[in-house]
Structures are given as C-alpha cells and as structure tokens.
C-alpha cells in the first residue's frame, strides 16, 4: 500500500487529471485550458497547474500574464481568474523574472522545482485540478507523476493531432502511461479540420483519422475531436475575453462533450 | 520555494557548477562535470573534421514544424547528387524523423542522404524512451562520436522542443567543432513567439550564431475557393516584427499546405508531390539563403587561415 499522503495542499483537491502528449504543439495547453473551462461551465470548481518549465503558455491564454503571485502561510496562492473564484491557475510562468529569459536547466533542477511546485500551491477546495505538462517522456514527466502519485490522479487525457507523425509519438506516450501506472482516460484529437471562413469548405489540414485509429489500436476510449478555430486562437492569443468567447466557438461543443465523458467517468467521492 | 532563476550562472557557462550560488543546487555535480573541453569533445572534434557544415534546427516551441523543416532541408540539399547530406535526429523522446523520411530501419534515403535517429534503435513503434537527462546526453554523445559520418557537406541536427539537456549537450559537444549556425522555426502566433524569443536568447547565451528564423504555417490557401486565411493569426506582428525587434534575419515564410502533412505521413518528400506549391517555392528560397550563409562562413574561415 502506498504511504498515505500528507495532509497537504492537495488534500482538498478531489480529482486530478493530467493532460499529456508525446508530441509538442498538439494543443495540450489549449485543451487543458478549454477542459478546465468546460468543467467549470458544468458547475465545478477547477484549478489549472502549468508545469511546462520551458514554455509556460497558460498565463497569457487566460489574460493573467504578469499577475503577481503571493505567498500565504500554506504556500503559493493560486491566481483566481474570475470573481466567483471558481477557476484558479498556477504556472511557473508567474515566477519568471524576465519572460524572454530561457529556463535552461538540466533534469535534476527541473525535478526539484516540479516537486516543490506540485506540493506548495495552496489550492484549497477543488473539484478538479487539470495539470498541463510539457511534451516528452523524460525527467519532468516522471517527476510530475511521482509527485502526484500519493494523491491518486483520476488519470491522463492524451492529446494528439490527426497525422501519423503525432500519432507515432503519442503511441509512445501511452506506453509511458502504462509503465508509470497512470490510467489513460482517453484520447482527444485536436486540430481536426479547418473550416474556410470564406466558403465553409472543411479541409483536413493535418491529415485525418489518426486519433480514432490510435484509440482503437491501443484499446483506450476516444473522447472526441476538436476542430481548428482561428477566432478562438485569436482570442487565446489576445488573452482577454477567452472565458466569455469560448462558448461561442465550434470547439466548445467538442469540449463540452469531452468534459461530460470525464464527469461520467469520475467515481462518486467517498467522504 | 526559490524564485526562478536565482543567480544561476547558467548550465552552459564556464562557472557552471562552480559558482557560489551553485552550492546545494540539484544540478551542481552535473554542471560541474560538463564544463570545459573533455576527451569526448576532442574525439567528436576529430570525427567532425570531415563534416563541412553543421546546422542546428531549433525552436522553443513544440509542433511548429522543426522535423518537417529539417527533413525538407535535407531533401532540398540532397537534390544535388554531388552533395553529401546527413540528418541527425536528437529528439530522443519523440523521434519523428524516421517516419517523415519514410525509413523503418534503413539509414539511407538516397545514396547521398543518410539519417540517424534513436527511432531506429527502438524495436516497436510503441516503445517509449523514458530516459532522464544523463542517459539522453550519453546517446547524443554516441551519435556524434561513434557514428561514422564520413565526408559530409551538410550535417543537419533536428532537436526536440525546449531548452534543456539535449540542447545544452549538442552545443557543448559540438562547441570545438564549429557549428555554422541555428535555424529557428516558429509559427506566427504569440504563443510560439514567446518561446522562440527564449530560444534566441539561449543561442546568444551559448554563442551559437543564428542563421535566421523561418515562420511556418504562415497562412492557408483554401483548396476550394483559393482564398487565404490565417489559421494561426499573427496577433503580435508574427515573426517579422520579432525578427526586427531582436535583429535576426527572417529567412522566409512557409504557408500551410495540407499536402505537407500527407507526404510526411507517407514518408515522402513534399517537393516531389507538389513542386509548384507556394510552400515548395518558399522552402527553396529559404534553403538557398541557408546555403549562402554557410558558404559565406566557409570563405571567411578560409580567408582567416590563409591570411
């Protein structure tokens, strides 16, 4: 039996979901953010933890860049993104003194930071904590999973794009999850088609079908496809109304459906 | 928790592992063991004597098309049968080059285009390479030191996203062997540029010359109505403005062509399938500029030696 988790900052977090990929640039951070918002839309209290040390993108997506983070007696206070305090964020991006300065560290230093990061954020009570990870299967991924293991994460959402080059890496990520004892809740296929704003023809810009094929091959649930939406991307870039604009996007329906599957797969909590 | 970064002299500097602020850092021993020339770097320098030009393809950001670009740079250069090209894939966790080049285990795409990747060493497409930094570094060192590269005109090194072990290692191992420079790939949107600025700063920190920046996925032409849209909008001025601000050359912009992805999936050169695509033309112009940069360097070095 695993050692019982210390009653620490994650004690009030009911469910932890990791968002992984093997491949960079498939939209992990975007999906993490959209998933968190979809769960919040379903009435849940959600936190987002961004452990991508080399490329922390979430603060900008949510218009929280440059927000100061404060220490409270239990550790770092996460940044709340709404008045109701139903969605909060912690990212290593908040701790960088100069946003253009590269965090050029080797593995052990990254591991040490991740370990502290995971345990030192005072989340309070949360229904879901969505953990965004960097691409790969190396030091920081192992460190993240090991740090979260005592809290028994619900599982991992694995993101791919449709083409074979992504699927090739994501297959390896599924093996990684298996080896690390992390349950795969399902696969999400992102960037699934682009609808031309001029003529509404939908083109498979990054090939097609890879996500569903992979899910079948690997025997894991296929949670859904999310289309490319440049209007949404523009909003994410500009950072301000994303929380308001998201429900109007074609991606929203896809994410709502994915969030529902996660809610359905979440076991009822024991007191 | 310590603030990030905190008086760290830099894992690549001469003070790495030896500065006052290094005491107690988890990386200390690693950094200290790497600083300065070692027998390995000397061996690598010897091996690299038969390699005329070395180009690193970098980005800070994943998924911008580094491997696609590296592969097509290799294809483009290899069209001249008299030029020997070597493509080295040091993305240990996510080795995409074998797939993009259509290789399962053979190492030569053409007689004059050879490829090396950790992907070839894996027995199954499901095998995951779950290695920590030191083991990854060891693999990279082996690739550089133990592979018999022979007479090579261009060695192209495809890297993983980020600024970590692999990047530090390849720069350190090749430091004495002279790298011509780095080509940095980005897409137009700020989320990419954010990471690419860090990559440019990394290059400057380790004194790696920057050949220039390529803006990939720059606009999309609908195959039906032929009108252009921006799938990844350049909300903060795209690579052009960033390059102006940071005083690095913009080598060119490559539009999104769905045929690129299709050909990569099949492991074929996109240039053959779509020779007249605006993307092909963009690639060719960029490749030419890279060759010009490398030749300029070569003549400068020759002048220095003969003077």
TrEMBL record, chain A:
Major subcellular location class: cytoplasm
Q: Does the keyword Metal-binding apply?
A: yes
Q: How is the cofactor bound?
A: Binds 4 [4Fe-4S] clusters per heterotetramer. Contains two stable clusters in the N-termini of NUBP1 and two labile, bridging clusters between subunits of the NUBP1-NUBP2 heterotetramer.
Q: Name one GO molecular function term.
A: ATP binding
UniProt-annotated binding residues for [4Fe-4S] cluster: 196, 199
SUPFAM superfamilies in the record: P-loop containing nucleoside triphosphate hydrolases
Could you tell me which PROSITE patterns the record lists for this protein? MRP
GO biological process, any: iron-sulfur cluster assembly
The entry's localization annotation reads: Cytoplasm, Cytoskeleton, Cilium axoneme; Cytoplasm, Cytoskeleton, Microtubule organizing center, Centrosome, Centriole; Nucleus; Cytoplasm, Cytoskeleton, Microtubule organizing center, Centrosome
Quaternary structure (record): Heterotetramer of 2 NUBP1 and 2 NUBP2 chains. Interacts with KIFC1. Interacts with NUBP1.
Q: What function does the entry list?
A: Component of the cytosolic iron-sulfur (Fe/S) protein assembly (CIA) machinery. Required for maturation of extramitochondrial Fe-S proteins. The NUBP1-NUBP2 heterotetramer forms a Fe-S scaffold complex, mediating the de novo assembly of an Fe-S cluster and its transfer to target apoproteins. Negatively regulates cilium formation and structure.
* Protein name as annotated: Cytosolic Fe-S cluster assembly factor NUBP2
* Native source species: Homo sapiens
